[in-house]
Amino acid sequence: MSGATTFRYLFSPLRIGPVTVANRVVFSAHLTNYAQDGLPTGQHAAYYAARAAGGAGLIVTEEQSVHETDWPYEKLIHGYREAVIPGYRRITDAVHAHGVPILAQINHNGGQASSMFSRLPVWAPSPIADPLFREVPKAVDRREIAEIVAGYATVAEHCMAGGFDGVELQCSHSSIVRGFLSPATNHRDDDYGGSLENRSRLLVEIVDAVAEVLRGRGALGVRLCGDELIEGGTTIDEAVAVARIVEATGKVDYINPSIGVATATLFMIEASMQVPPGYALFIPSAIRDAVSLPVVGVGRFKDAVQAERALADGHCDLVGVVRGQIADPDFTAKARSGNAGAVRTCLSCNQECVGRMGLNRWLGCIENPRAGRESVSLPPPVRRRSRVVVVGGGPGGLQAAVAATERGHQVVVFEQAAQLGGQVLAAASVPSRAEFFDIVRNLIAHARRLGIDVRTGHEADHATVLAERPDVVILATGALPERPWWAGDHPRIVDVRDVLEGRAEPSGDVVVYDELGFHQATSTAELLADRGCRVELATNGMVVGQDLGITLDLETWNLRAGARGIVQTVDVVPMGATTGDGSGGTDERRVQITFQHHPTGADHVVTCDWVVASVHQRPNDGLWQALRGAPFPVHRIGDCLTPRRAHAAVIEGHRVAVSL
Question: CATH homologous superfamily of domain 485-614?
Fold first, then answer.
């Protein structure tokens, strides 16, 4: 049975103004950081074309800026410059080659911006500083409002000249239009402030101006915020009223709702695995009940089954799938062919997509090594089939095995444990991180489909590898816990992996000490608290779990930590640990750990039952040392090269495999 038969709604066509989409899957607008000097690039074209080739029904590009005062981040596309048109044409030609329509999103970010790049004042409806950018904007006057409206029309003209099938107005999570719509940021007392009709005036004027440019030649969509999730902001009832105003213009072809504000509540816009799939469906559902225009549903759809259910239940008419199609560009095609189980499901870990954006790097994907590199050609296929031995069945080793097999090589994988997964098994053992195991689950399923010879419960040594008579060896043997110097030999000071992998079961009062700033410590602290421990999480950083900020996990971690009574202590470093009960006794069942508050140099002693350390590991490179001088190439990838995070192992596994 084909997927088109199984998914009754997902693969039905729909007309959106003058545009017909073949299915209901939308590759919605999102930032990529692929622009150069304010212009679209060949990487944009290759990126969007890959998702068009993969079967997406509709593609909407990232935002195109309408005015020189709008430059919130370095690699923004300056749509108001006529020089963008050739780049637009390259994108649209590449997407249209696969028979897929593509719209351009256009926007002015308003007060959610900085003057750092533009050296111009930030414009907004009222002089209210954004909580992230912390810059007081200039309240725009009527002349400047007219200039903004004209800018939208100009960019719409450029988009149509560039071959787009229409435009989408970004009036949602980061937009001057949202700023005007929201009572939290619009404190004006003129015709653009006060009543909802007045606060909607700029949106209506922009719709009129852009529709005049399109003249029915292209589709016009509006992306609205359904709930800002901030005090005094737009809520769903007012968003529904705005949707009715949009429909009443008679010039808009669809509405694409969102949730949250890109700076204040960004963690709800690009929700991590801590937030359930479909969490935002109440917004498109309410808007769809109020208008007759097609409505796009959003909210972390992991697979085609979830998307089909949202359509079947009447929540929306189309489904926005972004990270799912970043992870697997063939998301739609696989489901249509009846092979939905082969989709590389997104983890919603946010490490290489949202996280890289926050670090001003181009968008990638922890699971898909080709994401962000679609324009870079792979080496030509091999002419000689090699026998490849991969040692280690974690994400790096499995990625190397899959990529090498797809390149035509014969591969055997050795994994010393009874189960594949490496350190991912431990990471995903915490309930709030269970979806992280998908990175391995997807690769295991792919390896099985390819028929790769995988041998679990086999510890490969020098003799084992030589017996396979390999042409190439790839080592993905991971890393081992490293006991910190301050721990001495106290039996109740253990590593986070000892806890997560079941070798230690702390109880009572537990101090988790973190030097890594990521999920290792926070996950373990959460797990121990759920087991009844009284937990203090201490760190040498200024914030507990500081790197959770870039993956948008920090807010939800703090909520869960507060609910569990986890104490958070920052800016401290351990200076040593001994046995003791805190009153001069030498109870070996208790630990006394001395912390120094490094900004002041003051010491304090904490007495507890256990200490769990989340510190840097050391490479498990014994087999590498044994194979030095072997008569075949030996490659190290991932943590056995040097300990890092999972994305490095996946990227290196792919890189080595395609180079063979």
Answer: FAD/NAD(P)-binding domain (3.50.50.60)
